[in-house]
Structure formats: C-alpha cells, structure tokens
Amino acid sequence: MRYLPALALTLLAGCNSLPRDPDGTLDRIRQQHRLTVGWVDGASPPPVVRRFLEEVARDTHAAIILRSGAAEPLLAQVRDGQIDLLIGPFEKDSPWAGDVAFGPPLARGAGEIEIKAAARNGENRWIMLAERAARTVSQEARAE
Are 122 and 100 in contact (CB under 8 A)? Predict the structure, then answer.
C-alpha cells in the first residue's frame, strides 16, 4: 500500500505524451510552421471552413499551404502523410473512413453530404487538435 503513490506518479508521468502521433505530424507542423491543406476541386467552401483553418493555424502557429484537386488522389495523399488535412464534401459513410480519420462536420451539404476535414489515421494528437477546432467553429456556425 505504501508504494501506491509512487506507482501512481510513475503511471501519470508515462501518460504525458498521450495521445501520440507515431509519425510526428503535429510536432512537424509546429516546428516547420507549415500546414499543408488540400481542398476538393469544384466545391465552394462555406465561411466556417475559413474559420476552421484560421483556428488550426492559430493553434499550431503555422502558415497554410493550399493544394486543390480531385478527392480520390488527395485522400490518398492524406493517407500517405503528404497532406496534413483535406477539406471537402464527403458522404457520411465514405469508403475512405477506414483509411483516413474524418472529423466532425463543419457544415452540411445536400442529402448525405457533409463538409469535413480528413487527417491521417493514427496521428491521434493531430486528429484531436483538428477535431477540437472543428467542434469550436461548427458550434459557432450553428449559433449564426
């Protein structure tokens, strides 16, 4: 029983780095001050997208580098770690859900379409930051 406080402190110290980014996405963005964002061609971004990107850029102290193109190649680049975030209209049950981590909807499109961001699976610290920003701005959007 007398070792319980020491054990608890040791376990808490080990939790300091959780959640983790195995490939260091968030650390890289913060160190390089550069955030690569893809945008799906043909989609007109609602104002909430700009607020979302401003929130993420502010949290990471990074400049945004935009790329645009077709959804499939950009999703592959997110999966492979070449793009940090991809924003665009996606179906609620996208077949890419197993390959990338979709955040909460920033806005709703027609039918089953949602405007949302996708990040590389497994980069949990990075995903949490992006999801927190999405929730913040989407709450603002609902209040408007």
Answer: no
- Structure confidence at residue 3 (pLDDT): 57
Q: Count CA within 13 A, CB hemisphere, residue 10.
A: 5
Nearest to 74 by CA among 41, 25, 27: 41
State the average pLDDT for the chain. Answer: 87
Question: How far is residue 44's CA from residue 39's CA, in Å, rounded to a whole number?
Answer: 10
Which pair of tokens denotes residue 51?
A: 């607020």
Distance CA 115, CA 105 (A): 6
Angle at 46 between CA 41 and CA 51, to 5 degrees: 110
Q: What is the DSSP letter of 2?
A: T
Looking at residue 66, its amino acid is L
Q: What is the pTM of this model?
A: 0.82
Which among 37, 15, 43, 40 has a CA at the least distance from the CA of 126?
37
C-alpha span between 69 and 138 (Å, rounded): 24
Contacts of 140 (CB under 8 A, 6+ apart): 48, 51
